[in-house]
From TrEMBL:
Protein name: LuxR family two component transcriptional regulator
Residue intervals of the Response regulatory domain: 3-116
Chain positions found as 4-aspartylphosphate: D54
Annotated source species: Knoellia remsis
InterPro entries: CheY-like_superfamily, NreC/VraR/RcsB-like_REC, Sig_transdc_resp-reg_C-effctor, Sig_transdc_resp-reg_receiver, Tscrpt_reg_LuxR_C, WalR-like
Amino acid sequence: MIRVVLADDQEMVRMGFAMILDGAEDIDVVAQCADGVEAVEAIRRERPDVALLDIRMPRLNGLEVLRQVADITKVVIVTTFDHDEYVDRALALGASGFLLKDSGPQLLVSGVRAAASGDALISPQLTVRLLERTRARGVDQPVVPGFSDLTERELEVARLVAHGRTNAEIASELFISMGTVKSHLASIQTRLGARNRVEIAARVWESGHA
């Protein structure tokens, strides 16, 4: 069971997210918090597998909470605000995901599961912007090791990841099963030395394969 602490200053949002997550058979919301200080206390008390944090909260914002608890739990930022600097700061502090509140129930559940399993998930509409910024900061296209080892199908999967596609979308687009997508992703991570799908995407953009 994936134990989750949920923090958002809007009660209706908390209730909605809790209903979605508790509806998943493998997720249990163990605490709900209305501000950042409550969130830090709950995370230290409950030691959850994942913490879902809003960014703008009273007393302590979500990014500061993340900074304080990143060594205790996996953190997924869930917010209305898609400002680039929030995304960059959250990932730099070690967030395991960044989701917009309007991403939908399926992505919310997927984000929690991904974080719990050591992966990272970012709302598709943010992924391309993030990786374009990563590429823009580079001077020349570096030679990224591992790409010559990818099969043609693995390169297709990696490119779709780089453009923000979910596993379900990749499976549909390439006419393959979800299990096959996951198998390809595992192989791609090994060949590229990437820890999760965000790093896969970053390497695709850095190498010019996007």
